[in-house]
Amino acid sequence: MKALGMTIVAALIAAGAAAHSFASPDQAMVAPATVPAPAGLDGRGLFLKHCGYCHLPGGTGSIQLERRWGKARALLAERTDLPAEYVKGVARQGIFSMPPITRVEVTDDELDKLAAYLATADKTKAHGR
Ligand code: HEC
């Protein structure tokens, strides 16, 4: 009987400790990093999803860029002159008629991937190969 009592007390203490550590601010800050992030889209997929409706052929971004700078600058996915830092700056601040893209829409990690994709000089990327 005594042993059973001790077991119950030990179980209650363990439960209390678990509840406490779960609720502590330290745990709360560590927890998200231990949850594996979903695989998600690659840079090209992110570009198509978040920028494509303006920056694929016929989109307002493509039309506006062609009007302003000429055909060679119209399609972002065919450009070889877009440093990643420039792409990220434009995305976060917007430019003329392009609205800023918030971190809610595209996280910093996603924007890193997306900008790296646009900075690549590989022409085949525009055709999805
Ligand atoms: C709502 C439409 C829209 C969306 C969505 C959009 N853009 Fe744009 N973007 C534009 C327009 C319009 C311009 C041209 C602005 C101007 O010159 O008037 C532009 C211009 C740019 C430029 C400047 C290119 C240059 O030659 O200087 C970059 C870079 C760019 N966009 C990147 C992006 C990226 C990356 C995304 C997705 C995260 C994105 N845009 C999403 C409309 C959009």
From TrEMBL:
Any idea which UniProt keywords this protein has? Heme, Iron, Metal-binding, Signal
Q: Which residues form the Cytochrome c domain?
A: 38-122
Q: Name one Pfam family in it.
A: Cytochrome_CBB3
Q: Does this UniProt record's set of keywords contain Transit peptide? A: no
Signal sequence span is 1-23
Q: What protein am I looking at?
A: Mono/diheme cytochrome c family protein
Q: Which organism is it from?
A: Sphingobium lignivorans
